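Researcher: Batch entry, complex prediction.
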Amino acid sequence: MLDLFAYIVMVPMVYLAFILFVAGMVWKLVRVFRSPSITGTLGLFPRELPRPLAVARDAFLVPSAFRKDRVFWVFIVAFHAAVLFLILGHCELVWNIPALQVIPHRVFLGAGSVGMVMMIGTLYFLFRRFGAPVREISVPEDYFLLIILFLSILFGSILHLVDRLGIGAMHVPVQAYREYFAGLLTLNPRLPVMVSYSPHYAVMVIHIFFSNLFIMLFPFSKMIHAVFAFFAYSTARR
Amino acid sequence: MNREKIGTITDLMKSRLTKPMQYYLDLCTRCGLCYDSCHVYYGIPKREYTPVGRAETLRRIFRKYFRPSGRFFPYWGEARELDDRAMEEVREAAFSCTGCRRCMVNCPFGIDTGYLMTMAKLMLIGNETAPEELVILADSAVEKGKSIGEFKEGFKSVVGDLEKIVQEKLGRSSPDGLIPMDNGGASVLYAGLAGAHSIVNPAVIFNAAGESWSLSFFEAVNFGAFLGDPEKMQFIANRIVKEAIQLGVKELVITECGTAYRIQRHMLGTLPFKVSSIVEVIDRYLREGRIKVKAGAISEPVTYHDPCQLGRNGGVFEEPRRIIGELCTDFREMTPNREHNWCCGGGGGLVALDNEKFRVQSGLVKRDQISATGAKLVVTACENCVSQLDTIKSGYGMDVEVKYLTELVADNLLL
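Model: Structure tokens for the complex:
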């Protein structure tokens, strides 16, 4: 029974999450692009920088948050920078990317710090919502997304740190992950023995379960800000 | 609320689903950074007067009818059904927002809550609970546009009286032609307001500069925009555009009305003539030496209130400061200023409504800002701002004078 649950999470649910993510994103984008444009501009003044630079500044330096709340700003920037490392790190679990080995490192990037930063960040974002005034504007979606994100990162970090620190001689070779992902990518899914018989397996299943859930909800929740924010920046700097 | 009414309102919501509306409705993370960036919240610290509070009032209804999450799992984003109470909240959200867009500057994504409120305002029209005053004002503006022939003669005779005032101010021998109308071949078409000051002072300045100009038959103010009716907004804006094209002018100059300037300059797309604010024109005349003012004529402390639609939403920041700099010896900036300036609370048609107590309360931050400068004279370049600043002044018993920039210039011209 547990094996079946594990298999569902590790294979069909991953496909489902992928399909929902792609279809959802396409649907969201198509809907925006098919909506009528506005005449004129909703841009703000002054226009000190050329539009692409202003958009880049707004997106990467988040000046509005810097002005209003420095602590929040530090968490925003650290968290989102960690997201970039997280994506790169996972790419290395899927493919061998020699370019990333310019600085030789053991997969995963960041030696566990990425997960730590994201966990602390997620908890900060969550606890912020427990106090006024943010509590007054929070809805169940806000808490739910942060909780599943935290759980996903927590189990992902356990997976990585236990392996890196050699606790209990737990180890899943990178090659086993690549075999698992290669199976998924070539529509020939398989669970390598080094994965499914690893003492890590339960932790991995839980990690992937919460990640799947998060990815499925991504296009249909406020997580869409990852894409739409750039449209809004672009509108504000037009 | 019956199904038919709900259908009417949701159809109107659908009609406003432009590209920006689509992403503004979906992308807020409710981070709360905008929370205290609204002047109304400063004066009345309630959730419904925060930008996110206003936007969520709209978004919760929107999710219910337009998003699967709202339809199937309403608790997920606290989606809510349309009913009379919800529409009351929509009205409170829409008509407590001046559309100043200060929150847009403070949103990490730059969400335009003012723009979101245009959908809320349209819903109120569908629900027949839009403010009566604005409905009447917008309708009469449209009516005037449709039958201008009937209004022309009456308007010309009023303007004849104003020409005598202009003559007196300029010290000319005859009032004839000091306020030209229907002046084919003019370079400039000037769109004023109903108040005499919005015609007399610019007329003095245009004549002093030797400008070839013509006064528009239409008021620049756009009650269609204040009401939130996109068709009426377009009609009211386009009647001036048509007049400008008919006369073949090179430049349309908008009076001290922030909303009119923003709409004509930034919301109509490319036009076959230039659109300027009277403030930009005065600054240009001064720099070109076409008019001269009594330098340093005003020695009492002066501050300038950036009208939101002229400043952060229109891009006119430095011109008024240069003009005041020539006239005044003790200019004091408010803090914050320019794109971060606090709204006075008069925009979005709010000064036209019966809401004086609310506007005094929401003007608290402006009172504090002005008081902190120690200025005795507050200069601004927007009709709504002047009315609201006067309300704040009397509401808090402030010892200041509020003046239009054009008035300041016209009174201190070297002729």
